[in-house]
Amino acid sequence: MEENDILTKVESVRKVFNSGKSKSYEFRIKNIKGLKKFLKEKENEILVALTSDLGRAKLENQALEIMASNAELDCYLKNLKSWMQPVYVSTPAVFAPSTSYYINEPYGVALIIGPFNYPVNLFIVPLAAAISAGNVAIIKPSELCPACEALFAKYLPQYIDNECYKIVCGAIKTTQILLSQKWDKIFFTGSTRVGKIVMKAAAENLTSVSLELGGKSPVIIDESITDIDLVTRRILWGKSINAGQTCIAPDYVLCHSKHYDNFIEAAKKTITKFYGEDPEKSPDFGRIVSTAHAERIGNLIKANTDKVVVGGVVDIPNRYISPTILKDVELDSVIMQEEIFGPVLPVIKVDDINSIIDIINRNEKPLALYIFSKNQKMIDKYLSYIFIFCRLFRL
């Protein structure tokens, strides 16, 4: 899209916001219902587009994209009226006898940049949030999912207000043009690297930014666990879904030496049970979003060829990376420094809690931490010394 066309869209939605059109309860509800109608009436087209872009199974697409989005939309429909009500608070003595309350007001003109890994859910849900809050928005779907991008551009304007919400398609140049504009709110989902670019651009206008980024989310298998097969299934489900392209997917495993060999063997059996002897032929195992991303992940495997105990198959032209388990990975290797974002799982043998804490805290704060333990005191200690955004544990 040309720069002048983008500028025209931005100016037009700002003008509409200033008119107050997007602020009424009735308007917000109507457009949220429009998103639900879009998901229902275009479900088949959405599923086809998702399979084209990511090679995922139908059930996975329905659960992670359609059902997950509808659950969020239902939440907005149920709670929006109460969210719009004033909230009364105590009044400081200096302002007595006045009454104090606050009201949730929209930011104004929002820019929403969607990611490639969940191109429907992480496009629809932020848009619904913007609508619910009374904002107008320019929405940019990921160019790495061309089928979904084209579907949004073609059909979504039929279901939501075209004056308040406009779709802009394009690649890096388009994103750069968008980021150079003045916004009241930017919502970005994606990599930390691009998140820094977004934050830097937003700083020019002191724009409020929400960043939903990734990271290296570790798994701890504690000495106290008793069912290694169950633990393995849960870890590999989380790692393999969407071919590992999930921001909170397990990134690496810190396994107590007591269970290390058993976990490796259980992983081999579990992958075969999930996807058969050749996962590339399985209709249930997805593909990497692009050849460039497949090549990046393939290079991580290539640098650790001697560590591969399961998988290790790389087919870049077909964007296929097999479910791969690596053992005895060096802590200073590249794969332990950057988010993998693919179906490759390093497993590291550990013996004491201090080693686990040191390994995790040497990297940036993870987005999630998964603890498998039957020792509550040990869980509490992990949570006291490991700094994370989301904590999940299983006793």
From TrEMBL:
<dbReference type="InterPro" id="IPR016161">
    <property type="entry name" value="Ald_DH/histidinol_DH"/>
</dbReference>
<dbReference type="Pfam" id="PF00171">
    <property type="entry name" value="Aldedh"/>
</dbReference>
<dbReference type="InterPro" id="IPR015590">
    <property type="entry name" value="Aldehyde_DH_dom"/>
</dbReference>
<dbReference type="GO" id="GO:0006081">
    <property type="term" value="P:aldehyde metabolic process"/>
</dbReference>
<keyword id="KW-0520">NAD</keyword>
<dbReference type="GO" id="GO:0005737">
    <property type="term" value="C:cytoplasm"/>
</dbReference>
<feature type="domain" description="Aldehyde dehydrogenase">
    <location>
        <begin position="3"/>
        <end position="383"/>
    </location>
</feature>
<dbReference type="GO" id="GO:0004029">
    <property type="term" value="F:aldehyde dehydrogenase (NAD+) activity"/>
</dbReference>
<dbReference type="InterPro" id="IPR016163">
    <property type="entry name" value="Ald_DH_C"/>
</dbReference>
<feature type="active site">
    <location>
        <position position="212"/>
    </location>
</feature>
<dbReference type="InterPro" id="IPR029510">
    <property type="entry name" value="Ald_DH_CS_GLU"/>
</dbReference>
<comment type="similarity">
    <text>Belongs to the aldehyde dehydrogenase family.</text>
</comment>
<dbReference type="InterPro" id="IPR016162">
    <property type="entry name" value="Ald_DH_N"/>
</dbReference>
<dbReference type="InterPro" id="IPR012394">
    <property type="entry name" value="Aldehyde_DH_NAD(P)"/>
</dbReference>
<keyword id="KW-0560">Oxidoreductase</keyword>
<protein>
    <recommendedName>
        <fullName>Aldehyde dehydrogenase domain-containing protein</fullName>
    </recommendedName>
</protein>
